[in-house]
Design goal:
heterotrimer, A alpha+beta (about 260), B alpha+beta (about 280), C alpha+beta (about 240), B: about 280 residues, alpha+beta, Glutamine Phosphoribosylpyrophosphate, subunit 1, domain 1, globular, C: about 240 residues, eight-stranded antiparallel beta sheet, five-stranded antiparallel beta sheet, Ntn_hydrolases_N (chain B), proteasome (chain B), cytoplasm (chain B), hydrolase (chain B)
Chain lengths: ~260, ~280, ~240
C-alpha cells in the first residue's frame, strides 16, 4: 500500500519524460496547497455502500452460502448488526448480495415476483440454472443505471449438483466452484483459492476432498479470518446450506463485534 | 537544467523544513498524480480516545486499532503517548504524524524540565503542540487530547490538527467519539472518585469500540495523579474477543510448495520476536 | 469527528484533503458601548460540521486588563491571532512603559488580519477601555477592515438581531440598560441561529477592568425567548394542541 500505483506507460519514454517535466514545472509554479481550492459539496449520489461480505461454495451435491450480518454506513458507522444479505428464494435457490442495500431489496423483490409468476404459469418451482439466467438479464436490463450489487446465486441445479453463479453489477454471469463478494472479497477469495482451488500447492501434494463438512468449516473460518482484519465485516455469520434432496438449513454463528 | 529550476522553486517555497519534515517530494508526487498515478493510502487511526478529569486527577484512554482504508493495519497500536511522567497525550488522525509530534513534544518537555529543574506544565505541552500544528496549517493530521497533572492541578485539553485548542472537564476524539461522548454526557459528574472516573472512561471507550468500525481490539488506560501515574492495559473487552476458534488447522505439510531451486544460508538466532498475533 | 465520506477518508493532508471538517465558531457576538465602557455578549457553541465540539467555549479572550477580543470564524486562526497579538501588545507596553490604547491594539490586530487575509478566515471584535477615549468598540471583519462602532453584532447569529440593536441603541445608555440589551440580543440570536447556542457569556469593560459573567439556561438570568405559537393550519376536524 505504500507505493504509487496506476502509472501505465502509454507514450514513448522520451515523450513521457517531457510530459512529466512539464507537469513538474506546472505543479511547482502553483502547487495544490497554494491554490485556493473550493471544497466542492459532494453531488447527490444515488448509490451508497453498506459494506459486509458474502461468499458461496458449491460442491458435488451441495451449495453453501454465507455472509456476515453487519450493515455499515460510510465504512465507519454501524447501522445494524442483524442485516439479511442472504435471501432464500425457493427450496433450491439462494440469492446472496453485497453492495447498495436499496438495490439489493429491489432486486430481491423483482426476482421473487418473477419466481411467483413462474409458479403461477408453470405449476413448478424455477430451477437454479434458469433463475441464474433470469438474474443476469434483469441486471443487464439496467445497463446504464445499474443495480449496484455484487450478486451471487447459489443452489442445486437441474441435475442435483451444487451451483454457484457470480455476477458483476451489470449482469456478467459466470458459474464457479466458489466465489465471494463485498468488502472482504480480496481476503476471502485467496483463502478459498488456496483451500478449495488448491492453486498454490504443488500438483503432487495431497488435496483433501471438498465434503460438505469441510466446506462449512472453511466458510466459517473464512469469515472469522475476515472479521479479524476487515472493519466492516463482523457481528454474525449467516450460513445457509442447500443439499440435494434436503430442505435448506439456515444457521447463525457469532463473530467479533468490534 | 529543468530539474535545477524546479529545485530552486521548491527551495523558494520553503518546503524543506529540515529535520523530521521534508516536503521536497510533494511537488514530484503531485506531478505523478497528474500523470495518472494514484497516491498511496495513509495509515490513519480511526480511533476512539477518551479523557475524563476527576477530583485531583485525570484518566485518559484509547483503543488500539489502526486502519488503512477498510483494513486493520495494526491491532495493538499504542495511542496513549507519554510526554512526561505526569503528562500524557492520546492521538487520533494520521499515525505517523502522531508518533512524530508526540516524540517532539516529549523531547522538548524533557529539555525544559532539565533546564528549569521543575516539572513541565500541561499548558506548555499544549502551546507547543498548538503552535507546531498551526504552523503546518492542518497538513500534519494530528488530533490530540493532552492531559496531565502539574503543580497547578489536573488539566485536560484538546488540540486539533489545524491548531484549535480547547479545555474540557471530559471529552472524546476520533471516529468513535460520537458513541463515546454519549456515555460521557450521560454519566459524567464533577468531582468523581478515581474508580468512578476509570470505569467511565472504560465504558465510553467500549461504546466507541463497539459502535465504530474503525475502533476496537483492546483498550489502554492511564490514570494520572499528582503522586503517581498508573498505566493499565491492554484490556480486552468481552465483545472484542474471538467468539469461536477456527474449525480447521491450516498448517501446510512439507511438499505443499513445489521446490524449484535450493540454496543454503547458515545463521544463528540472536533474537526472536513473537509474531503470533 | 464527523462521519467521513470516501474522499475525506482517503485524506492526503499534503494535497489539501482534510480528514475532518474545520472547527469553527458559528457564532453570535454582540457588543455595545455605553457611557462608561463597553459590554460584549457571546454564545458558547463551537462546531465542526453538524457536531458540537464544545458547548461551553469562551469566545471572549482577554488581552490586557481592560481589553478583550471576541473571536469568530476559524477557531484555529482566531486563537493564533489572539495569541500573537497579545504577545505584540505586551511587548509594546513593556517597551513604551505605558498601556497601549485600544485603537493601537486594534491596529495590531488589523495588521495580522490584513497581511494574512488570503490564508486566514477570522474576524474579531476588539472591545476595551482606555483613559484617552473611554470605552471603545472596533469591528474587524474578514480581510482586515476596521471600523469603530457604537453597537455591533458579528458571526452567523448577527443577522437575526441587527435590527433589534439598531432600534435599541441610543446615546448615554447606562451599564444596566446596555447589559440588558446585549443579553437579550444574544438570547434572540441563539434562538434563531442553529450554530449558536449553549450558555451566554457577558463581559463588561470599564475603567476598573474587565468583569466576566456567565448565564446558564438552567439558572435564572438566562435570556430565554418564548417560542411563538404555531399557526393553526390544519383543517378544523383535526385537533391541535395550541
Amino acid at each position: 500500500m505504500s507505493n504509487f500505483t496506476g502509472i501505465t506507460a502509454t507514450m514513448n519514454p522520451l515523450a513521457e519524460m517531457a510530459q512529466f517535466k512539464q507537469n513538474m514545472r506546472e505543479v511547482a509554479a502553483s502547487p495544490e496547497w497554494r491554490t485556493s481550492k473550493l471544497i466542492e459539496r459532494q453531488r447527490w449520489n444515488p448509490y451508497s455502500m453498506e459494506g459486509g461480505s458474502t461468499a458461496a461454495i458449491s460442491g458435488d451435491n451441495f451449495a453453501i452460502v454465507a455472509s456476515d450480518t453487519r450493515m455499515t454506513q460510510n465504512d465507519i458507522n454501524i447501522l445494524t448488526r442483524d442485516a439479511e444479505k442472504i435471501h432464500v428464494l425457493n427450496d433450491s435457490i439462494i440469492l446472496s448480495t453485497s453492495g447498495f442495500y436499496g438495490d439489493v431489496i429491489q432486486l430481491r423483490k423483482v426476482l421473487q415476483s418473477r419466481l411467483h409468476k413462474y409458479r403461477f404459469d408453470y405449476r413448478a418451482d424455477m430451477s437454479a440454472d434458469l433463475c441464474a439466467e433470469l438474474l443476469s438479464r434483469n441486471l443487464y436490463y439496467r445497463r446504464f443505471f445499474p443495480y449496484y450489487t455484487g450478486a451471487m446465486l447459489a443452489g442445486i441445479d437441474e441435475n442435483g449438483k451444487g451451483a454457484v453463479f457470480s455476477y458483476d453489477p451489470i449482469g456478467c454471469i459466470e458459474r464457479l466452484g466458489y466465489s465471494a463478494s463485498g468488502a472482504a472479497e480480496p481476503m476471502i477469495i485467496p483463502f478459498l483459492d488456496c483451500q478449495i482451488g488448491h492453486v498454490t500447492v504443488a500438483e503432487d501434494y495431497e488435496k483433501p476432498p471438498l465434503t460438505i463438512e469441510r466446506a462449512i468449516s472453511l466458510m466459517k473460518d473464512a469469515f472469522r479470518g475476515a472479521a479479524e482484519r476487515e472493519i466492516s465485516t463482523g457481528d454474525k455469520i449467516h450460513l445457509v446450506i442447500a443439499e440435494a434432496g434436503k430442505p435448506i438449513v439456515q444457521k447463525f454463528l457469532p463473530l467479533r463485534e468490534d | 537544467m529543468v530539474s535545477t529550476e524546479v529545485k530552486n522553486v521548491a527551495a523558494h517555497m520553503d518546503m524543506d523544513r529540515g529535520g523530521a519534515f521534508d516536503f521536497s517530494n510533494c511537488i514530484r508526487n503531485q506531478a505523478m498524480c497528474k500523470m495518472g498515478a494514484k497516491a498511496p493510502k495513509l495509515t490513519s487511526t480511526g480511533t476512539t480516545i477518551v479523557a475524563v478529569s476527576y477530583k485531583g486527577g485525570l484518566v485518559m484512554g484509547a483503543d488500539s486499532r489502526a486502519t488503512a482504508g477498510n483494513i486493520i493495519a495494526d491491532k495493538h497500536c499504542e495511542k496513549v503517548h507519554k510526554l512526561t511522567e505526569s503528562i500524557y497525550a492520546c492521538g487520533a488522525g494520521t499515525a505517523a504524524d502522531l508518533d512524530q509530534v508526540t516524540k517532539m513534544l516529549s523531547g522538548n518537555l524533557r529539555l525544559l524540565e532539565l533546564n528549569t529543574g521543575r516539572k513541565a506544565r500541561v499548558i506548555t505541552a499544549l502551546r507547543q503542540a498548538k503552535q507546531h500544528l498551526f504552523n503546518y496549517q492542518g497538513y500534519i493530521g494530528a488530533y490530540l487530547l493532552i492531559g496531565g497533572v502539574d503543580p497547578t492541578g489536573p488539566h485536560l485539553y484538546m488540540c486539533s490538527a489545524n491548531g484549535t485548542t480547547m479545555a474540557f472537564p471530559f471529552t472524546a476524539q476520533g471516529s468513535g467519539s460520537y458513541a463515546a461522548i454519549t456515555i460521557l454526557e450521560r454519566d459524567f459528574k464533577v468531582d468523581m472518585t478515581k474508580e468512578e472516573a476509570e470505569k467511565l472512561v472504560q465504558r465510553a471507550l467500549e461504546a466507541g469500540m463497539h459502535g465504530d468500525n474503525a475502533s476496537g481490539n483492546s483498550l489502554n488506560l492511564v490514570i494520572i495523579e499528582p503522586k503517581e501515574t498508573v498505566f493499565k492495559g491492554p484490556i480486552v473487552p468481552e465483545f472484542c474477543k474471538r467468539p469461536e476458534p477456527n474449525d480447521l488447522v491450516y498448517k501446510f505439510k512439507t511438499g505443499a510448495t513445489k521446490v524449484l531451486k535450493n540454496k543454503t544460508f547458515k545463521y544463528d538466532i540472536i533474537e526472536s520476536m513473537d509474531i503470533s498475533h | 469527528m464527523d462521519t467521513m465520506r470516501e474522499e475525506k477518508r482517503n485524506a492526503i493532508p499534503a494535497i489539501g484533503y482534510y480528514p475532518q471538517e474545520e472547527i469553527s465558531t458559528g457564532t453570535t457576538l454582540i457588543a455595545m458601548e455605553y457611557n462608561g465602557g463597553v459590554v460584549v455578549g457571546t454564545d458558547s457553541r463551537t462546531s465542526a460540521g453538524s457536531f458540537i465540539t464544545s458547548r461551553a467555549t469562551n469566545k471572549i479572550t482577554p488581552i490586557t486588563d481592560n481589553l478583550v477580543v471576541c473571536r469568530s470564524g476559524s477557531a484555529a486562526d482566531t486563537q493564533a491571532i489572539a495569541d500573537i497579538a497579545k504577545y505584540y501588545i505586551e511587548t509594546f507596553s513593556m517597551m513604551e512603559n505605558e498601556n497601549v490604547t485600544i485603537y493601537r491594539a486594534t491596529q495590531i490586530f488589523r495588521q495580522f488580519l490584513y497581511n494574512y487575509r488570503d490564508s486566514l478566515s477570522a474576524s474579531v471584535l476588539v472591545a476595551g477601555y482606555d483613559d484617552k477615549l473611554g470605552g471603545q468598540l472596533y469591528a474587524l471583519p474578514i480581510g482586515g477592515f476596521v471600523t469603530r462602532q457604537r453597537s455591533t453584532a458579528s458571526g452567523s447569529g448577527s443577522t437575526f438581531v441587527q435590527g433589534f440593536l439598531d432600534s435599541k441603541w441610543r446615546p448615554d445608555l447606562t451599564l444596566e440598560e446596555c447589559k440588558a440589551i446585549v443579553k437579550q440580543a444574544v438570547g434572540l440570536a441563539v434562538f434563531r441561529d442553529g450554530s449558536s447556542g449553549g450558555v451566554v457569556r457577558v463581559a463588561t469593560i470599564d475603567k476598573t477592568g474587565t468583569k466576566l459573567e456567565l448565564f446558564r439556561p438552567d439558572k435564572p438570568g438566562f435570556p430565554s425567548v418564548a417560542p411563538p405559537k404555531g399557526h393553526l393550519s390544519f383543517p378544523d376536524h383535526i385537533e391541535q394542541s395550541v
